[in-house]
Design brief:
alpha/beta; five-stranded parallel β-sheet; 6 helices
Amino acid sequence: MKTWTVYLSGEIHTNWRDQIAEGAKKLNLPVEFTSAVTDHDASDAAGDMLGVPENNFWRDHQSSKVNAIRTKNMIENCDMAVVRFGDKYKQWNAAFDAGMCAALGKPYVTLHDESIVHPLKEVDGAAMAWAQTPEQIVEILQYVIAAK
C-alpha cells in the first residue's frame, strides 16, 4: 500500500498536528506527515546565518526565503495538504500555502472554525473540503487512503 505524504500547514499555537498524527496512527494509516518549522523563534531566525540585516523587514525577508526552500519542496512533494487557520493570529503564510497548493494542483483541506468562514471564502472555495476538527481530518484521511 502506498504511503501518503500529508503536508500540515498553518497555525502553530495548538496541538492540532499531534491530534491528526495520533488519529492516523490509531487507524494504522500509511501516512507520513511533513510541516513547516513550527518553532516560531527558529522560523524567524532561519536567515540569520546570512548576516545581520539593517532592519526587521530585511531579516523577515531573508528568513522567509530560507523557510520557503523547505515549504516549497514539501508542498511540491505532498499527496495532499491540510491548511489550518486559527482565530488568534492571521496566518498569511497558510493562505499562501493554500494558494501554492491550488496553483500546483495539489489537493488540500482547510481546517478552521465557522467564525472565519467569510474571510476564507476564496481559500475554502479552492479546497477539496472544509473541516472544523482534527478528527474530521483523520476521517477524511481514512476515506481517501483506505476507502473506509
